[in-house]
Design brief:
It is a single chain. By secondary structure, the protein is mainly beta. The protein has one domain. Helix content is 12%, strand content 57%. It has two helices and seven strands; from the N terminus they run αββαβββββ. It has helices spanning 3-13, 60-64; strands spanning 28-38, 43-53, 69-76, 80-89, 92-103, 106-117, 120-134. A seven-stranded antiparallel sheet has the order 2-1-7-6-5-4-3. The chain is globular, with a radius of gyration of 15 Å. Mean pLDDT is 79; it is low at 1-21.
Amino acid sequence: MSAKSLVLISDLILAFAPGAAAIEVPRGEWTLEMKTENPMLGGAMNQTHTECIDKQSWTPEELMKDPRCRIYDKADTAKTISWKMDCTQEGMASRGEASFAVDGETMTGGMTITMMAAGRSVTMRTTVHGKRTAKTCQR
């Protein structure tokens, strides 16, 4: 998986508000642990990084900022959000779904994306666990 893909997944992990409803994501410094399973890379890749959350909510559309993707079937409760998406990029179609939950100082979730590559279907799965480590960001 490319660094650009990891950044996109990282950004999507922070997408917690469809439409007018929003999940409160406490501002501050968060440590995110991600595990991505990608059969094209031959296995799982683990990544841990720190992210500064200085905005409390986003819509999936704000983060995607890509007219080639269509977000649909958004659903949310006070603590969860889920959505589906279809994208076409560089002639390759992909379909995905995501679900994330925030409970005070922790977040969990995941995303599954299926695409056609070299004439066959490839599914990539990412799971996420996050914890707020500080109330302010150390930039």
